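Hi P.,

Sorry for the delay on this. The queue was packed all week, but I finally got your sequence through. Input first:
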Amino acid sequence: MSWYEWREYVPVAERRRRAQQKLKKLKKKGQSVAPVTIEGRTIAKSFWGNSWCTNLERYSDYATRLPRGRTYVRNGSVVDLQIAKGEVLAFVSGSELYKIKIGIAPVKASHWKGICRDCAGSVDSLVELLQGRLAKGVMERVCREGDGLFPSPDDIELSCSCPDWADMCKHVAAVLYGVGIRLAARPELFFVLRQVDQAELLRSATAGAAVARRTRAPATSSRSTSGKTPPGSRSTIVLSISA
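Then the structure:
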């Protein structure tokens, strides 16, 4: 990105028309296109989508640029958004059709193990996990700044083909919010993006619940209340062989 002169304003409707023309060419080449759509003013309504947006807004590095991104994503300017392992690829309609690439570092192994350990016994099913129907402690743990599941600015690399000099241009900001919208509809993509297996979190939770049940179970004695050795015990078998 570099310094540039201000271009002539292009109305949103004209931007969309131009963008659609270019997207049609991409479709003809076999590229799938997944535009970001939003109903109403609320950007993301689910736990995963809303938590993604909240995490972005907590960092002062992003504070001044994110508002323009909200405007862009609300007016339908994110005309394509694809989420894969460790990256987001998108096209945003501006004065031209701009290509955005956002790299997301994987969750550190130590952080992931800590999350699985701390959430053991607290997640009942994969459905509840993806729907965000989680205990308050689990939600706070996965959203925790520093060692939670959501990325910090140091984990994020931003790139846009527009001439804006800033890394966090309005097109990138729109895509970041677009990710939140997409996660609200397809929360499993969050785990793809962060390169962790949600089933592993569920297995840890199931194992933790099993351990908790065993801990709560009353201890049983190998001897009867009368003090005699129950039939079939090891000492009974030894005596019968000796005879």
